[in-house]
Predict the 3D structure of the following.
Amino acid sequence: MKVLSVVGARPQFVKLAPIAAALDAAGHEHIIVHTGQHYDALMSDVFFADLQIPAPDVHLGVGSGSHGVQTGAILSAMDAVLDEHQPDWVLVYGDTNSTLAGALSAVKLHLPLAHLEAGLRSFNRRMPEEHNRVLTDHAADLCLAPTEVAMGHLANEGLAERSVNVGDVMTDVCFRVRDMVSGQIPVLPAGVDPLAPYLVATIHRADNTDDPARLRAVVDALAALTTPVVLMAHPRLVNRARSAGINLTAGSLHMIDPLPYPQMVSAVMHSRGVVTDSGGLQKEAFLLRTPCTTLRTETEWTETIQDGWNILDPDLVLVGTAADREPPTAEPAAPYGNGTAAPTAVRVLAERVQEK
Ligand code: UD1
């Protein structure tokens, strides 16, 4: 079987890692196309190096732009790539502009399309990711869902017959890296004692960054905490804060560049809590048994809020106590599988090729 993966943004590199390993282990051919949506070394190259992902076979180098410009640039570059490789499956990941563009290119060339992490829904149509994931699911020939909740959403939209629950591939990586870094003391910015209580924070969603008043309220709430806050700053946050004149090192804030994946896992494992608007980090906090406060009105990963591991705090009323929350005592649930999603996904892909 020949699979062509389309990736471009940081969370997709994380998901690609176990898929690339599973395809290799099963002896399948794998072409990796990097769209170039994320291009800073800390947003891209370090993930390939740390997670031992083979270098991309094709790099489209599209870079940043408005949604239409970025999606269109990927789309127009993809035809030639897909024509040349003629894969058995085009595999797209998650919900970014790279996902949607890869999906559109594949279906317009009548190439079989599989969507990994299918069926997630926030039901918030203001999120660009919600459109990307809904459109991609409906374009796909095969929806590889991470959870039963996602399978339910796909069934509600008439997609049950082409959907399979393979488990969550980010859990595969997260558990592997957790075991690798366990016992290590996290490397934190100067001024934050890794053995004393601290919080980890990330903010990058348009709803939190693009309105200066909202961004100021979020940053003020974090800066006012009495526990040190390690703010792993996405370039979008840095850019928006700079234009709005907002100081990302005020009060308790200790700003650092985005961390490589193993260092991020280590930092979360040892923290008192996570404050974020990232989907992936909410789930990683849950998997690493760290309480999470999510600065959004909803989450796609609803399993994280059962038992109280994750709480939604769009109005910034609970963030002040983020470091004081005790971990829930209920028996840990495992809604994301046991860390073997990628080999399962690869097996399903291989079975479905033979059926064609
Ligand atoms: C994208 C995804 C989002 C995902 C996130 C992970 C979409 C619609 N959104 O959001 O779902 O959670 O990636 O990080 O695809 N920039 C740099 N260097 C980079 C990348 C970005 O400086 O390597 C800056 C640019 O100013 C750019 C901005 O960040 O315009 C936003 O980047 P973009 O890829 O458009 O969206 P993200 O916010 O990263």
